[in-house]
Queue: 2 jobs
Job 1
Amino acid sequence: MNRSMNVTTTAAVPRKVLPGFGLTMGYSVLYLSLVVLLPLSALLFNSTGLSWAKFWDIATDPRVLASYRVSLSTAAMAALADAFLGLLLAWVLVRYEFPGKRIFDALIDLPFALPTAVAGVSLTALYSQNGWIGSLLEPLGLKIAFTPLGITLALMFIGIPFVVRTVQPVLEDLDRDMEEASATLGAGRWRTFRSIVIPELIPPLLTGFALAFARGIGEYGSVVFISGNMPMRTEIAPLLIMSKLEQFDYAGATAVALLLLLISFLMLLVINTLQRWARKTSR
Amino acid sequence: MKIGIKKGLITGFALLLTAGLAACGNNNAGNGAAAATDAPAASNAAGAAETTKAPAKDPVELLNVSYDPTRELYENYNKAFSAYWEKETGQKVTVKQSHGGSGAQSRAVQEGLEADVVTLALGYDIDALKDKGLINEGWESKFEHNSSPYTSTIVFLVRKGNPKGIKDWPDLLKAGVEVITPNPKTSGGARWNYLAAWGYALDHNNNDEAKAQEFVQELFKHVPVLDTGARGATTTFVERGIGDVLIAWENEAYLSIKELGPDKFEIVNPSESILAEPPVAVVDKVADKRGTREVAEAYLKYLYTEEGQKIAADNYYRPTLESVKEEYKDKFPEIKLFTLADKFGTWKETQEKHFNDGGIFDKIYVPGGK
């Protein structure tokens, strides 16, 4: 927050890098409208064909509710796992030198670039009962493909770059003097980590978590292959939206989408508040 | 600062407006240009008619919007048709293909994909185009055999040697048998699968609907994975090695065997199945607008000729022309087949009763659901 305030104050200085505020703001509003606001309002518009009662009926159908449960819980689990894993990955990338580090660093972004369906197909091939990994785990009684665990795995893959890329720059900026001071004052590694490093990292970790979580809720491509799509058990909400479209039921599809949007918006709001609070207390 | 925001917003909306107007303007210009290019072409053709006696018509392009498993079929058919049409009329025709899930393809055409003809998996998907005013009333009777030039049916694909001894529909309900079929809510092919099982159950329970529902419900308890489409289900069964039996289009089953070798899988024909009739239609509105009606109709009619029928049969679709049927009778064994109309009525009724939200398929999964 502080940083953005700084930017606006410097922008008020007579000589500006970009042309006048009116013009830049105008362009921003235009593009925001075209890219985000118009599609979203079209979404609203599409569902207005429904009465409130019908909307509620569709959005709270037991099968739809079950799919929300699957989508939200797997996305949350995946984002949580990504928060831990991503922190570790970012740490290794920032603090250590090793051969092939640049390649390692570039690999992190791969899930952004890869079509998600490709990820889904390859994960399914690996984890289904006769895949490389699945065939080893299945005899141990651990089924991954076609269970919520499989969905979580796919969402972890999709979400990991969000955490790494938000934590990494903060970690790079982190003052090492503080850690050294803490060490010279007699704090152990764990204590230094807990009271010096972690407080600084909580805000970016929360951001990364929120991004990965939001991405996971809406993810379709990678999940349909590995989830098995069993109604009430592993059926995700985006799949139900697709299946309503398949019946040419545009209003119904939008109803499900709208509630999903609302839920994730509320979640993001909560996380954002948490994040702001964490930043305040850490300073 | 405040004034700045206001100014910004105003500029933004002004820009939005101008962009919108510009888009409209462009559109008009586009139409105008298209009309303009048409006119000299026509006069050219007229000119050509004057000098040489045989009028060489301008090359024409058709778009055939189809569903997934017909890719190979139409690749071959388009070549044959282009050759035939050029020989008949002297006009060059290129046919472009578009493949995808049948419902998604229908949606694309509804949203403005300019298909001259559609060749889809279900009458329901073409009905949806009729409801949008793109296709005229009565498309089903425009061509022979309910506008379905080739047919298919639903069969079982099992692993070599048929280890679970699957011979007919009731065997799918035996303990320990895992059945692979896609989700009828997202796959046209899966709807045929479901209806085939339902029809069989009706026939063996004196047309008792409740018994049929019980049968199908029990069947879906044996399904461990519901893929979104027919190809996905085939992959699950064939590549992932999941399940004991795949319920599939006959042509998909043959194709899997051809692609993967007959040493791994075999086809089991149930005692009774459904006659799957994938229909074809000219998209009247598009064909009239683009002036392609004549060639589009010829394109679909040619499917019924001996050559068209043979191409269909070579791609594992059942021919409807008697002479070709006879020729390929070893390839397509006799199965007792019932039609959708026999057991279920129209697509609209079937869709509403079984597959729409709150329909029977939903009840199978949500006990006591609405």
Note: Residues 2-51 of chain B form the longest helix (50 residues).
Job 2
Amino acid sequence: MFEQQDPNQIQLNSEGQLKHFLTTEGLSRELLSEILDTADSFVDMSAQQVKKVPLLRGKTVVNLFFEASTRTASTFELAAKRLSADVLNLNISTSSTAKGETLRDTLMTMEAMHSDMFVVRHSDSGAQHYIAENVTPNVAVINAGDGRHAHPTQAMLDMLTIRQHKGDFSPLKVAIVGDILHSRVARSQIHALRTLGAAEVRVIAPHTLLPRHIEALGVQVYTDMNQGLKDVDVVMMLRLQRERMLSALLPSEAEFYKLYGLSEDKLKHAHPDAIVMHPGPINRGVEIESAVADGPRSLILNQVTNGIAVRMAVMSMSMSGQTTEAQRRAEQQASSAE
Amino acid sequence: MNIKIQGGRVIDPASQLDQVTDLYISAGKIAAIGEAPAGFTADQTIDASNQVVSPGLIDLCAHVREPGFTRKGNINTETAAAAAGGITTLCTPPNSKPIADTTAVVDLIQDRAREAGNARILPMGAMTQGLAGEQLSPLHGLSQVGCIAFTNMRLPVKNSLVLTRCLEYAATHDLLVIFQAEDAGLSSGGAMHEDTTCTRLGLNGIPETAETIEVARCLLLIEQTEVRAHFGQLSCERSVKMVMEARNRGLQVTADIAIQNLLLTDENVNGFDPNFHLIPPLRSQLDRAGLRQALLSDGFQAICSDHQPHETAAKQAPFAATEPGMTGLETLLSLSLILVDQELISLPQMLSKLTSGPAKVLGIESGQIAEGLPADLCIFDPQAEWTLTPETCKSAGQNTPFMGHTLKGQVNYTLLEGQVVYQLN
């Protein structure tokens, strides 16, 4: 009765270029690799004396954060500035929507300021899809995390970190540990890892923190940490919000840490060269032991650095795709008017 | 006024009538079928050739939003939409504002319906006061002023003893109780069916058990209290199996299914279109297959629209933040005809789910074409194609995924008690 929706119809332009960046799901391996390659070039740039390029000069980027964030918001801001964009940071959670303004009205207000790009974080899954469907055609939308759905730039910075340390994805066994149920990061990581060809993606959590039918995303499910970590090359820990301990999801921090916290002992089950990652902010003694978080296998700070490069990459690519699309439309309109 | 309806295919599932014939209407009632009564002179003749003449449709669940929510619709607009959809009788849930737990509110709804004159409204009364699930409403008094049935909708009666008392009291007065089964704890925060699409989209899920647990609890209490009971808008295969088993055990329990749950699945939500945000949610393909199979049994006597009109702003938000429900009065017949096109059921069988079936559930005389009964009729062309557009939509709500879709089966006339209340163009 209805055609199956193609989630990428909205984020790619007619030439297959990135127009918005909303999810890693369904994007091609070539496109994900292009993001990583572009990000790589920006990683090198960050080490130089002058850390700016003029790719978004004259453009206005608005960071619309409907949820609190420190590191994601900061790295997006820095990325936009390094691309020479003008940046407006709006913490919407404490302003207009608190006064009752709808998302649509906030969006229209921002559009009226002739913005070129919205970087959006929102607590509702699909909010950025809604925004992308409703913005004027020349505005790019970058998802900085929506509900439990997607956090694609976080996933891509994780992929960049893995590629820098492991090279090829194809032999890799990767374990994602913790609150899979509420994690937009995990969903985006799973799609990206599978598209990039990782040999095996595992999720490890108690059933209370696992979405039903998660195996349909192509992952192996483990509820035992030691078994799940066996021989893995990459351990990706997830942040566990303390309020989850107070609900019926988990009995206590102590029990969670005992069973699923990443300690040096548990890490021994992984491959000897395994790397450890965490999207941050970390809860020491809840998800991860300090010795592991600060240890030689930890790439947590590398992830932060790579975050700027990846965000520069997707911002420049989507703005380029958006501009191409806008030009194409303008040309079409001009030719149809003749 | 005398009306002759000439040359239509008259289908009346209640009497198993299916033949091309004429109908004669006088003083608002069916005067004769076939031969004109002695001395009959038609003031108006409706040419129904190549069209179906059926009883006016009966919709077991349609929100009209009045009183209290007239920004979404009102009795005049929504009954006009019903008439345009061939519906002559609709049951309205009690969650108006104020809630239909007093005779004053029920009177008001019926007065407004009579003023509008487009369709008959049979209000459902609130089973508990304020739908709070704590104190029994004056069920008998409400029934005396026209409440056709009683329900607490999807709002929980958590205390099983309170629910038992409600059912016992309803049974005392032989009142119909309607359940829209949902365990509030399990469905809490959910926006769609809990399955793979839900997991991918990162939306909060509503598991099957949110419905099946409540169906099981209600069935046990129905058995204990021997109340007349009906389940509205079941969405899960397991639920319909339980109801069928209960009927096989001898319980007088019936059920209906919303047309959207017979046609769509949770996979349609892919893409976050808020028009697919429905409660009960669109379920899995397996559930849909189970519901379609159940439709073939006599336990599932009705298809309903579960009409829930909304103002535009209610759907202008991210999926889970939108208000659930779709407008459905104008598309109920055409969407049901898809089941005929798909050869799941025959046209007369389908019409029985929209006419005599719901009439039996409610215990009313409508829903059939017989001499002496009110002339509630729907005359439609089953082959004519039409498109619902914002301009032609009579409902105040335009929130439907079928907006802009071309559908088959167009209503040409609707008659309520012998009066033409809708005529195409």
Note: Chain B touches chain A through 30 residues (CB under 8 Å).
